[in-house]
Amino acid sequence: MMKAERIQVTAAVIAEGGRVLLAQRSAGDPLEGKWEFPGGKIEEGESPEECLKRELKEELGIGTRIGKFIASCRWDYPHISIELLAYEAEILSGSPAPLDHSACAWVNTEELAAWELAPADVPIAEKVRLLFS
What is the CATH number of the domain that holds 54? Predict the structure, then answer.
């Protein structure tokens, strides 16, 4: 069986005071219960930055400014192959609420490795720990 083409997915690294925002995948999701940097699938004709702004508004109810590119990771899950593109993001309006996730949490960057992250988010978390600790 051939794998589907790899899709591009964005992830926001929202860092404040030595902590970063994580979101937990909802029940019924193939990655149910795993934590991730919030973001989502890039739609046709959309830049990664535009995607992140849209996804963060839809999933967390926040207005954001997207900053510099941090890192990427390619990962093959049983259900999908992705290239995860992580960018710095800053909250301009609203307070993060789990509109599309089961929970949100502010996590100390030094403690990221202790969280049950989605596999594609693990290398991003390591880079984040080095950059923001």
Answer: 3.90.79.10
Task: Confirm whether 33 is domain-assigned.
Answer: yes
Domain carrying residue 120: 7-132
Closest CA to 68 of 88, 91, 53: 88
**How does pLDDT run across 100-132, given as a tens digit for each residue?**
999 999 999 999 999 999 999 999 999 999 998
Q: How confident is the model at residue 1 (pLDDT cuts 50, 70, 90)?
A: very low
